[in-house]
Amino acid sequence: MTVIEETSVPSPRDGGADGGPLLEVRDLHVEFKTREGLVKAVNGVNYSVSAGETLAVLGESGSGKSVTAQAVMGILDMPPARIPQGEILFRGQDMLKMSAEERRRIRGQRIAMIFQDALSSLNPVLSVGYQLGEMFRVHQGMSKKDAKAKAIELMDRVKIPAAAARVNDYPHQFSGGMRQRIMIAMALALEPDLIIADEPTTALDVTVQAQVMELLAELQREYNMGLILITHDLGVVADVADKIAVMYAGRIVERAPVHQLYKRPAHPYTRGLLDSIPRLDHKGQELYAIKGLPPNLLRMPSGCAFNPRCPKAQDICREEIPALVPVTEQDGSELVGRASACHFWKETIHG
Amino acid sequence: MAELSKNDEQQDATPNVSEVEVVDAHSETEAVAAIEAPVERGEPILQVRNLQKHFPLTQGILFKRQIGAVKAVDGVSFDLHQGETLGIVGESGCGKSTVAKLLMNLERPTAGEIFYKGQDITKLSGRALKAVRRNIQMVFQDPYTSLNPRMTVGDIIGEPFDIHPEVAPKGDRRRKVQELLDVVGLNPEYINRYPHQFSGGQRQRIGIARGLALNPEIIICDEPVSALDVSVQAQVINLMEKLQDEFNLSYIFIAHDLSIVRHISDRVGVMYLGKMAEIGTDTQIYDHPTHPYTQALLSAVPVPDPDAREHRERIILTGDVPSPANPPSGCRFRTRCWKAQDKCAEEVPLLAVPERFQGSDTPAAHESACHFAEEKDVVHAA
């Protein structure tokens, strides 16, 4: 145990080479060529994460939250995907302009990803020890024996009981929560600066979800990592996020620090989501429901993509795409970190 | 209950499937009459007693021998009253979906009885069973796999009429299907479309329309909204509540989302590893849970309120749910329970009102299967 303690002590990390954010996504567009036409999955997304910070990206299926993350990771299938414009700056360097070899060095070592479905993201015919060790063998040229020792250490780190005995087991021999821990261990292996977690607990039961989220938060604190948490669960977001970006139809429609978003949403879509959570005092009454359906990305409505479902929609919403503008207090004083892409954000936040 | 025990005597308690096949015509007619009789609102319509389902584990290819059993459901009892919604919550693998299948008579129970209006449906066959099946319908979890992609919406919703033609005469079916589409909030002109032309929420509406087709009295909903987007979930929940009032339905609502279960349910049962851990009204379960598993489950649910995260008490359970093939002795929760003592390993706690609360009218006085049941408010803990 003492050996493990010594080696797993994290090296203290600076916030970023120049004190700026770790990762900055600027005006990112992603589109897919399909037989039915061009699908614009991401239409100008901006967000940034600093070291030690948790950004939650909230959105329904088809909102472009996962595609954005895949573009950051550089694991989009291109073609059919295409990135017509945008920048992804990692410590100030644009990753989209890097060579494949340079990106390969960042991926896994500096930015790692945790996927939703651990069973299908792990290789069923290789032992988990081998798969964990692969990180060290490929990136650091370690020997098989050393890599296995490291794998055991990692499994201990994510609190898998009897790690030394289970290192040669295969993914199907682990329970869902344990498999997700292995995914986390794999992402942590090379102590990356940033972890992107794409719905890490959606497939898990609540009691196990609580275990996994706590582990993730603990490791994040310890290594001072940046974390991008992609989810649709408003409860999980409230528990762990520092700031939130709400996505709808490939755009960020609202950005806010976590406490403010829940108290005073500045976009009708966010308000609708919050209102549709069943609340105690509304028992027996009808739930608030956002009417209609999320838009088809092939036939996007003109103007604001949310206008067919929005209770506040006016003519301008059908004509003009609202820009993501800073949100201010009623007296004009600034609300730090807040922005909304709604023509009527003032009415939405100030009542 | 008097009627219930009479029934017990008549048919003996042995649930042997092969014996049941022979039912004389007289008692069958009697059973059908009982099934078709209306039940007063608030009276029990479905009574489940000590229900068990064990799936055999076998070894060997040619000469299979049984080496054990997965005890998916192991002694579950509850009542469903007319017009109410009973929520059943629990983690995956706790047996809630198996209970649903048993209630639907899709699986034969290993032991135990399910009384529908006093008739034990596990022993029925022929006309009587058909009559029961008409009255208990199901809505499935995944609207993508539970609709046949090669059938039109009209065929899917109209198929129950082929089996029960007495509900809608042949010439009347198309109109009936269109009526159903209208009831669930879909355009009646969609009758000739195929499932792939609809979104997830719309498909779930089609599934609900199919469940309603035969005017059932009970609908069993197995995770009806968990595959849907957040903004669409509320629409489907509202629809289900509206239909309950309109058609006087009783629901068994199986889900893992505790806040939705609380919203829709009148009473809630918490299952753990094939057993019912605690059952009571929604207020009793959510505000006054006495079983440690319920308390842990409730405290683990993320609350959509960031202010609560600093001062919320969380019970984080260690480890995973044990295998139902080899459950722990005594209380099944004891391996993960912080209160566990020797007694818990030796004695199976029964589902009953705990002694200390008996006779008092506190909300904590509801059935809980724990030796050391005590109140702990985890939802409002500050």
TrEMBL record, chain A:
<comment type="similarity">
    <text>Belongs to the ABC transporter superfamily.</text>
</comment>
<keyword id="KW-0813">Transport</keyword>
<dbReference type="GO" id="GO:0005886">
    <property type="term" value="C:plasma membrane"/>
</dbReference>
<dbReference type="GO" id="GO:0005524">
    <property type="term" value="F:ATP binding"/>
</dbReference>
<dbReference type="GO" id="GO:0016887">
    <property type="term" value="F:ATP hydrolysis activity"/>
</dbReference>
<dbReference type="Pfam" id="PF00005">
    <property type="entry name" value="ABC_tran"/>
</dbReference>
<keyword id="KW-0547">Nucleotide-binding</keyword>
<dbReference type="InterPro" id="IPR003439">
    <property type="entry name" value="ABC_transporter-like_ATP-bd"/>
</dbReference>
<dbReference type="InterPro" id="IPR017871">
    <property type="entry name" value="ABC_transporter-like_CS"/>
</dbReference>
<dbReference type="InterPro" id="IPR027417">
    <property type="entry name" value="P-loop_NTPase"/>
</dbReference>
<dbReference type="Pfam" id="PF08352">
    <property type="entry name" value="oligo_HPY"/>
</dbReference>
<feature type="region of interest" description="Disordered">
    <location>
        <begin position="1"/>
        <end position="20"/>
    </location>
</feature>
<dbReference type="InterPro" id="IPR050388">
    <property type="entry name" value="ABC_Ni/Peptide_Import"/>
</dbReference>
<keyword id="KW-1278">Translocase</keyword>
<dbReference type="InterPro" id="IPR013563">
    <property type="entry name" value="Oligopep_ABC_C"/>
</dbReference>
<keyword id="KW-0997">Cell inner membrane</keyword>
<keyword id="KW-1003">Cell membrane</keyword>
<protein>
    <submittedName>
        <fullName>ABC transporter ATP-binding protein</fullName>
    </submittedName>
</protein>
<keyword id="KW-0067">ATP-binding</keyword>
<keyword id="KW-0472">Membrane</keyword>
<dbReference type="GO" id="GO:0015833">
    <property type="term" value="P:peptide transport"/>
</dbReference>
<dbReference type="InterPro" id="IPR003593">
    <property type="entry name" value="AAA+_ATPase"/>
</dbReference>
Automatic annotation (TrEMBL), chain B:
<comment type="similarity">
    <text>Belongs to the ABC transporter superfamily.</text>
</comment>
<dbReference type="GO" id="GO:0015833">
    <property type="term" value="P:peptide transport"/>
</dbReference>
<dbReference type="Pfam" id="PF00005">
    <property type="entry name" value="ABC_tran"/>
</dbReference>
<dbReference type="InterPro" id="IPR027417">
    <property type="entry name" value="P-loop_NTPase"/>
</dbReference>
<dbReference type="InterPro" id="IPR003593">
    <property type="entry name" value="AAA+_ATPase"/>
</dbReference>
<dbReference type="Pfam" id="PF08352">
    <property type="entry name" value="oligo_HPY"/>
</dbReference>
<protein>
    <submittedName>
        <fullName>ABC transporter ATP-binding protein</fullName>
    </submittedName>
</protein>
<feature type="domain" description="ABC transporter">
    <location>
        <begin position="46"/>
        <end position="298"/>
    </location>
</feature>
<dbReference type="InterPro" id="IPR017871">
    <property type="entry name" value="ABC_transporter-like_CS"/>
</dbReference>
<dbReference type="InterPro" id="IPR013563">
    <property type="entry name" value="Oligopep_ABC_C"/>
</dbReference>
<keyword id="KW-0547">Nucleotide-binding</keyword>
<dbReference type="GO" id="GO:0016887">
    <property type="term" value="F:ATP hydrolysis activity"/>
</dbReference>
<keyword id="KW-0813">Transport</keyword>
<dbReference type="GO" id="GO:0055085">
    <property type="term" value="P:transmembrane transport"/>
</dbReference>
<dbReference type="InterPro" id="IPR003439">
    <property type="entry name" value="ABC_transporter-like_ATP-bd"/>
</dbReference>
<dbReference type="GO" id="GO:0005524">
    <property type="term" value="F:ATP binding"/>
</dbReference>
<dbReference type="InterPro" id="IPR050319">
    <property type="entry name" value="ABC_transp_ATP-bind"/>
</dbReference>
<keyword id="KW-0067">ATP-binding</keyword>
